[in-house]
Each structure stands twice: as structure tokens, then as C-alpha cells.
Amino acid sequence: VITSAEFHPTHCNTLAYSSSKGSIRLIDLRQSALCDRHSKLFEEHESPGSRSFFTEIIASISDIKFGRDGRYILSRDYMTLKLWDINMDAGPVSTFQVHEYLRPKLCDLYENDSIFDKFECCLSGDGQRVATGSYSNLFRVFGSVPTSTEATTLEASKNPMRRQVQTPSRPTRSISSSISRVVRRGGESTGNDTNGNSFDFTTKLLHLAWHPTENSIACAAANSLYMYYA
């Protein structure tokens, strides 16, 4: 099943689409108007020993986005964000763990259909950061530069301090000085969000978008739209 499609931002003859098998295909319309053959294929194979009943389900890509310059493609599957260089089809250049702490709960997530949730992803206009949503109306922001260790979690809420629990063992880290009130570094424990609360799988932040030129993120949570300026 084709799950997402995106045109290249500068080359009108190039587009990419993702599939439920976890692959991304790059199409060149100069070769054919019928997109039954790809010019490049991007996929990451699981080692045979790590396969399980859920392998193909969590490998399904729910969203892809081109970077502004068109060199990179960001993809989101259930567990991770992956950044691909269109000149390197051997594997992703970066992988960001979003839901790794949910791996022991895959059976429960399958039974309540949460494992089929389709989270979107986005890149900042300068390509320095990537973002995607999670449960409990949280979203994650990662630094995409290879040397970056940035991993920030924010909550889309009218009262962002409501769930904040300060613990000295986990340092806070902001995207920049303007957003410092609801951030928390990664390292979640099983069943809990980054603020130490139990995850609420009924509240999920599926849709978000980064402004193409300004450092702003729009997040759709339930019936509200939240704007964050970094």
C-alpha cells in the first residue's frame, strides 16, 4: 500500500512515495509517466533473527518529507524517524528513536489498534532539526546534524507546565532560549512519558508542520491547534 507521496521541492520531474513495507521509492518522470519503475529504492532490512509478528506493521512508513534543498528525505515509521540522503541508498544517514520504550507493549498496542496510528513528520526550514508527534499530546524534536545530541520533548497543551515533573537525574534542554518551559531530554521508561506520567494512548499528536522559513511549529492536538515559536 502506498502510504505517502511527495514531490521534490526543486525538480518537478522527481517524486518519492513510501509504502507499508517500509520502503521509499524515488521516481523520475523523465523516464516514464507511468510510475511502475523506480530510479532509486531506499529501505532498511531487519536482521532475520529480530523478525516478529509486528515487524512489518511497525516498519510501515506513515509519512515522508523532503528537506528544503531536496537532498534529504525524512520518513516516519511507528518506532523511529529516519533521515535519508537521496545519493545514498544503502541505508539512512540518521535514525531517531521515538517510541523505542513501547517495544515491550506491542501486543497491547496491537489489540487496541494504536500500532496502526499514522504519525506525521517535518523538518525545519534550515534542515537543522526534525520533529514528529507521539502520545499524550507530546512531540519530539531532534537535531539532524550528525554531531547533534539534541532530543527535546514538548507537550501541546494550554497549560504546558501542568505535567512537568522536575527530577535532578534528567537535565532539561530547550530548542533555544525561547522554548524552555516544557522541555525534557529523552530516555523514557516503559509505560511512562518523559515527565514520568503514564502514557495516554487516546490523546495522540498525529499532525504537525514546520514553517518553511520561520522557526515555528504548528501542532494539531484533538480539536486545538498549538503554535510554538523557537
From TrEMBL:
It comes from the Eukaryota. Residues 167-181 have a biased composition (Low complexity). GO terms for molecular function: protein phosphatase regulator activity. Keywords: Repeat, WD repeat. GO terms for cellular component: protein phosphatase type 2A complex. Transmembrane segments: none annotated. The keyword Membrane does not apply. Residues 165-196 are annotated as: Disordered. This is Serine/threonine-protein phosphatase 2A 55 kDa regulatory subunit B. It comes from Ambrosia artemisiifolia (Common ragweed).
